[in-house]
Amino acid sequence: MNEFGGLKRSYYMDPQPLNHFEWHLYEYEINKCDACALYRLELKLVDGKKSAKGKSANDTVADLQK
């Protein structure tokens, strides 16, 4: 990526999947190419000891809006 002179951005995706997974979106902007970017969506298995950042399946939309 450095050879193209670009930027890397990381986005936390919300809502997160349930259980012990989380995902992140990575954007790689390429400066030497007009209006070009690469995207990578990464799904990770997180340690069971750490709490996942996503909401539980029992939360309804009304509960989340409170």
At a glance:
With 66 residues, the protein is mainly beta.
Number of alpha- plus pi-helical segments: 1
- Order of secondary-structure elements: EEEH
Give the overall shape: elongated
Low-confidence stretches: none
| Tally of distinct domains | 1
What portion of the residues fall into strands of 2 or more residues? Answer: 35-45%
Average pLDDT number = 74
DSSP helix fraction:
under 10%
Structural class: mainly beta
Counting copies of identical and different chains, the oligomeric state is single chain
Q: What's the count of strands?
A: 3
Largest sheet: 3 strands, antiparallel
Strand arrangement across the biggest beta sheet: 1-2-3
Rg over C-alpha atoms, rounded to the nearest angstrom: 16 Å
Q: Alpha-carbon distance between the termini? A: 42 Å
GO molecular function, one term: sequence-specific DNA binding
GO biological process, one term: positive regulation of long-day photoperiodism, flowering
GO cellular component, one term: nucleus
InterPro entries: VOZ1/VOZ2
